[in-house]
């Protein structure tokens, strides 16, 4: 490598080696102040407009590439109590979200954590818990939704609002990425969550991940995680982008296909495929607007 190229690569590193080591050791890493107040404000403004829109709908609405709804609402949604829980692929309808997922420090840090030669965006979404809303996420591992030929995938969860220990933060099981992949099938149905027995045996010592708006939790794709409803008056809004090593070949359907899926966001494209040993049953894609319907046992597939 030339000295000049070496210099450019070193200068472009945005986290340090101890942070990369911590991510690999614990399976997650929280980095504060990844985005500036101005950058977060642009994301918040677009999101606020979608929440205002949601007051006019009683069902999921909008359309994404595969014909499913872009905006998904919780069962407690009303015009005077908005409960917009998901915006799928916001990069397609907002310049601010597109820039964040494809060209910001979030993408560059994800690239460093994925390692190897480069990283691609796989999909993105907003998960929102507005004040006093019921949305919860059951224990799961992301890789069971997005299997690839190798598991060098990282999920970045950018805090658009302040996330506190009380407003429904993400909970993770440190080091669980070093353990097995647990089936998310319950009998003949893909439910998008681990069994009650796995939860009992492996999910009893969770750690909350929280921080100021602009912070990001980077999470390994095998890490067990979940979150509870928001019973506070403060919103909890996350912009979630999933990145895969550029040499990881996706298996099965992308659950949130987008015109930006597969975009190289860091490093180079080697043209190679790398495989690691994993065994799992392919997921079912939800027929409804998002995986929340699968976890609630309300999806039509297999019903
Ligand atoms: O929104 C959350 O709290 C967790 C998000 C999550 O686990 C997911 O979308 O896979």
UniProtKB/TrEMBL annotation:
Domain of life: Bacteria
GO MF terms held by the record: 2-oxoglutarate-dependent dioxygenase activity; iron ion binding
Pfam family, any one: PhyH
InterPro entries xref list: Phytyl_CoA_dOase-like
Keywords in alphabetical order: Dioxygenase, Oxidoreductase
SUPFAM superfamilies per the UniProt record, alphabetical: Clavaminate synthase-like
Keyword check for Oxidoreductase: yes
Oxidoreductase found in the keyword field: yes
Protein name as catalogued: Phytanoyl-CoA dioxygenase (PhyH)
Protein species of origin: Marinomonas spartinae
